[in-house]
Amino acid sequence: xxxxxxxxxxxxxxxxxxxxxxxxxxxxxxxxxxxxxxxxxxxxxxxxxxxxxxxxxxxxxxxxxxxxxxxxxxxxxxxxxxxxxxxxxxxxxxxxxxxxxxxxxxxxxxxxxxxxxxxxxxxxxxxxxxxxxxxxxxxxxxxxxxxxxxxxxxxxxxxxxxxxxxxxxxxxxxxxxxxxxxxxxxxxxxxxxxxxxxxxxxxxxxxxxxxxxxxxxxxxxxxxxxxxxxxxxxxxxxxxxxx
Length: 243
Fold this sequence. Notes:
10-stranded mixed sheet; 32% helix
C-alpha cells in the first residue's frame, strides 16, 4: 500500500509539473510587443526595415515564433546581408542587422555586393559612381571578379572601367572613363590587353579624346575607330579574327 501511495504521489506531482509548465508556457507565449533594430545602417533607415519586418512578426507570439525561420525570411529583404535575431524580455525581439555593401550595378536594375551576389536596390538610389556591369543570369560573380582584375591593369594606364559586359556567347567588351568602348572578344584576352597597353603608351593615350572605340579582336594588332569617321574608315593594323 505504501508503494502504491508513493506511485500515486509521483504521478500527481508529474501532473502538477506538466500543468504548471503548460500554464507557464501560455503565460509567457504572448503576442510580440516590440521589435528592436541594431546595427550600422548607411543606406536604409531603421524605420524602413521595421516596416519590412512588421509582416513577419504580426500576430505571432513570443515563444512560438521560430527564430531560424524568422531569420531566413528577414534575410530576403533586399538590403540585408546578415541577420541575427533573439528574444528579449518582456515579449520583444532584437534584430542585429548587417547591411549590403553595393560595389557595382548589375544588368541595369540590380546591385552587386562584394561577393558578386545581386540584390534589389529599392528603395535606395544607388551612388552614381558605381561601375555598370552586365552579363547572363548566374554570371555576376564572374563578371565582378574580372572587373576587379581589369581595374588594376587599367589603373596603370591612368584609366578606369565604367562599364563591363559579358555577352551570351562569351565575348567581353568594356568602356573606359565613360567614353571609349573596347571590344575584347572571347579568346586570348591577356595577349590582346597587352597589345592595347603597348599601343596606349605609344600613341593612343595622347589621342584619347578622338577615339570612338577600339577593337582588339585581331591576331596581331588593334583597330581604332575615330570620332567623325565611319567604321569603314577605321585604322586597322591587321585583319580581324573571330571573337
